Amino acid sequence: MAKVELKQPIVQAIVDDIQGAQSIVLVDYRGLTVAQDTELRKQLREAGIIYKVCKNTMMKRAFEGTEFAALDEHLEGPSAIAISKDDATAPARIICKFAKDAKALELKAGVVEGVAYDAEALGEIAKIPSREELLSKLLGSLQSPITNLARVLNQIAEQGGAPAAAEEAPAEEAAEAPATEE
């Protein structure tokens, strides 16, 4: 069997992984200990992210004709690839967080929703909260005014139906009225 025939299944596996991907992040993993690499793989797997160490030539062939071809120029030295099909910012977020403790891990570049970014821009993308966090913040913002209204209405009901401010206002006006007449 020729070498090309042996490599074709590997390239096809990468193509299958990147199909439908929302984001891909390339990293330089040199210098990571086995324990660090295992922990990184565990965190990525829990988030539903595919993480593989692949040969650069295989990745170049797999990226040909796709939006991920912009990563070809960053495929130098050992490279690992993190692929997310669900949360576009998850690979960058998890890898950047992990790289704070594991200084040997370096982001090279990535493509998020069809746009290529360098390592610095990926660091900024990593600061974007996950979709679930954003939805919970939105829900909290929407619920806050309703909760406050319910609290005010409850206080009015507990005080016998009339707001406390409305009961105090006539008494204050009566006290001020004689002072201005004198």
UniProtKB/TrEMBL annotation:
Pfam families: Ribosomal_L10
CDD domains: Ribosomal_L10
Ranges of compositional bias, category Acidic residues: 169-182
Protein's UniProt keywords contain Oxidoreductase: no
Superkingdom of the organism of origin: Bacteria
Gene Ontology cellular component annotations, sorted alphabetically: ribosome
Residue segments, region Disordered: 160-182
Record key words, sorted: Ribonucleoprotein, Ribosomal protein, RNA-binding, rRNA-binding
NCBIfam families xref list: PRK00099.1-1
Quaternary context: Part of the ribosomal stalk of the 50S ribosomal subunit. The N-terminus interacts with L11 and the large rRNA to form the base of the stalk. The C-terminus forms an elongated spine to which L12 dimers bind in a sequential fashion forming a multimeric L10(L12)X complex.
Functional summary from the UniProt entry: Forms part of the ribosomal stalk, playing a central role in the interaction of the ribosome with GTP-bound translation factors.
Family, as annotated: Belongs to the universal ribosomal protein uL10 family.
Protein name, entry field: Large ribosomal subunit protein uL10
Species per Swiss-Prot/TrEMBL record: Dorea acetigenes
